[in-house]
Design brief:
Protein name: Glycine zipper family protein
Structural class: mainly alpha
Number of helices: 2
Helix content: over 70%
Radius of gyration: 13 Å
Distance between the termini: 11 Å
Number of strands: 0
Shape: elongated
Order of helices and strands: HH
Organism: Aporhodopirellula aestuarii
Strand content: under 5%
């Protein structure tokens, strides 16, 4: 179950990171890689923390 939260968080973080890049007016392969990878990592970590906080 923790893996599910991590995966959903990573996908959400990826979308948020790429949207943030677009809103800042950046484009290209390097900014997409930086914002996408950063968003995925932060989103995955957040998903795990949300799972760990939930009641069992």
């Amino acid at each position: 179950m923790r893996d599910t939260f991590r995966s959903v968080g990573a996908l959400t973080g990826l979308c948020v990171g790429l949207s943030l890049m677009w809103l800042m007016g950046m484009g290209g392969l390097v900014p997409a890689a930086i914002f996408g990878a950063g968003g995925a990592v932060i989103g995955g970590m957040t998903g795990e923390r949300i799972h760990d906080r939930g009641g069992r």
